[in-house]
Description:
heterodimer; A: mainly alpha; about 0% strand; globular; B: mainly alpha; two-stranded antiparallel sheet; Protein YIPF (chain A); transmembrane helix (chain A); Yip1_dom (chain A); transmembrane (chain A)
Amino acid sequence: MADEANRQFAGLSDVSISEDIPVEGDISVPMGSSSSNRQRGEEDEFSTLDEPVKETILRDLRAVGSKFIHVLYPKRSSVLLRDWDLWGPLLLCVTLALLLQGGAADSEDQGGPQFAEVFVIVWFGSIIITLNSKLLGGTISFFQSLCVLGYCIMPLTAAMAVCRIVLVGGSGTVSFIVRLVVVTASFGWSTFASTAFLADNQPPGRKSLVVYPVFLFYFVIGWMVLTFSPSQ
Amino acid sequence: MADDTEDVELDFAADEQERARRSAVIRHPLASFFHLFFRVVAIVAYLLSDWISENFASCFVLIITLLSFDFWSVKNVTGRLLVGLRWWNQIDEDGKSLWVFEAKKASRDNNIGTEAEARIFWLGLIICPLIWICFFFTSLFSLKIKWLSLVVASISLQAANLYGYLRCKAVGEDGQHADSFTGQHLLQRPDIIFGIL
């Protein structure tokens, strides 16, 4: 047994470490693949100063794009959850608010979604839903939840674009029915997509308590989309 | 064994460059410019909003776009170039959210900014949120509520970077080594805000 061990380590037999030479080295503790990549990437990015700015921009853009694609096909994946970012929700919110402009209800003296109102409804609504799910004992973090809720507004934004196109052709009964179908479908899609991510992190029996505010949130946004009427 | 009488090439050009780099007042002129550019233009746009456009929505989008660019560039580029600090959030395998604050050790070979650049960085980082807080009160008391939503969004974008970099500075000044592992020790302190987030 000892012979075998000696043969295995034969190559090290001429290495000797005297007692008074301190042996030192770097031990980097791996905390998970993403963090050790970061540590290694840190050195690279600190030393190559000019190049990474474009790289960083492209990397962030690719991350945002991949999340949009994941909303289109909502199956359980960790892309939206693990690498959250709020650029997509910001972009979607601004787009939705811009599309809701120019309506008959947009003048100062009438009710209706003004620009800032859409912003406030989306972000405050998301924050309240997140607080609700956290108070119910959810394991998802604050910004992850905001990220999911924001990205899942995408179907409703697309529905808004479609509605505006349909309204160009006229605002009679037919266009209303078309818009109703489109908005209902996208509302269902948004709710389904976001609950696919959010409800899984909840203890069972509380899923409906979490799903209900999400339902209400997208219902309000869908209502704003459906009741939009262009100014004469 | 090296022959002591061998010719050794002396690289004076690289030495000159090193010395020039170390004695420069501003090592990253582009980063310093962009650090201040977006924030100042956003504040100017807010003040001159009546001249830029009558439409509230376009003004809102313009200022939020400028502040988003500012947030991204300060967080990802100017922080590590000018003062060698960096902060981010990562989710580990258990799904737990981890905030990491990193401070680079100052050493001779580093290309971190000079004192002038550090001053530019911190002044820009601190003064602009204060100005936006002033705008908050002016719009609150003049009851311009829709501008209030813009000001709140701006404050949240600017204050996030300020808070992140202050935490990084705390990591650096604790005299510990600059790596994210020790950054975690500071994160384990009871901290109400990040406990929720």
